[in-house]
Amino acid sequence: KQWYQRRVAITAGGKDFCLDEKYGYVHSCPTNLGTGMRASVHIDLPGWTAHGVDKLKARCEELSLQPRGTRGESGGQTGCTYDISNKHRLGYSEVQLVQVMIDGVNKLYEEDLEFQKTLFAFPDFKSVNSLVAKYVTKERWDKLCRHVTSTAGFTLRKAVICAIELDNQGNGVYAGDWDSYKDFAEIFDLIIQEYHGISPDAKHTSDMDVSKIVGNVNPKAPVKSTRIRVGRSIDGFGLSPGITKEQRLKVESLFKSASKKLPGKLGGTYYPLTGMEESVRQQLVDDHFLFVTGDPNLRISGMERDWPEGRGIFHNVDKTFLVWVNEEDQFRIISMELGGDVKGVFSRLVEGIEAVGTSVKEESGKDFMLDEKYGYVHSCPTNLGTGMRASVHIDLPGWTSHGVDKLKARCEELSLQPRGTRGESGGQTGCTYDISNKHRLGYSEVQLVQTMIDGVNKLYEEDLALQKK
What we know:
Shape: elongated
Strand content: 15-25%
Strand order of the largest sheet: 7-8-9-10-6-13-15-14
Radius of gyration: 27 Å
Distance between the termini: 105 Å
Largest sheet: 8 strands, antiparallel
Structural class: alpha+beta
């Protein structure tokens, strides 16, 4: 009777719905031909979320389903709630498609329960001596393991996955968004306080007044180059371990627009990794500017998802001011040049940070994430606070002969951190070292730069004495 009434209403004007014998009900988009039907449910799938969104997408493909976030086709995914619908429209009847959706959702729910048993079970940490292993107790795990953050859909398991899968972690934890530091504070706070040596009631203080820097690196010191960097993240977007694909592309788009407004000698060119010409890639490699894939921590923590989409490098004409986009942090802002003019490099960095922040604010209306307690927010808790690493490459032949382990111990006394010149995991060769400030949080930017200058001068003075022995 209802069908008859609808038919009468339609034919009262002498017109039927467009119904093609071959393609079914006619739609403007060919993907909707046939039934034109999309039967969907909004369902929580915390087990699948922890297991991996890409894996959920692959499983839905097998079940002839289509998963989306709850904000529509292009709205991205956050949390553990999904819009699950039939994938097909044409070639199947309406009854068949509804049945496919029902059966598929039931199957996903059944599998989700199984994943929850595994993924929410208290994990074995391969990094047994990590701060994660120390502070993630079973009681805390059971309390927090099912929570999903609102900005990026991050979970505790994702936060500590490196400590679960790798055996060489000191901390073993990353944040997927600003929410991670707040929602999992019971764990993050303890790790941050022990690593940085701060009290529970400590608050971050920033100071970028270049005029307060006293002196500079001794011009006689064999310093080859100086580099100072900070990390910054735009409020409202996930951090690299948790950022969604849509958020990552938005961050890149914001920076592309903002970079065109950088003034004077800061102005330059943005080079996206996607579609990069070989000649450009090779030049960036030759300049030692290009960041690459393959680091186990970045891969396992989720920072290399969708590689290389949404990533890129900006540098000015003089190649003394750089911004890495969507590597370990949304932005790594870098000032560098040959020689040991630390004060000059710091001055350019301060100008660049201000210019990038202003341009991003004009484009998006958003500020950089700045926490009253922990300073500038980064994906790795070791970078909280200033997020600053001020470093020089310097030859220390006397210390090399005296012993690298003794140099490391001396740097510890001077609140410095020595590395090889091939990066954090690249090892040490020759007598050239990358010497930087050790701390990030609990000190201002001026204090950290001053610590580096004074410490490098002291190491150079001692190196000359060791060479005489």
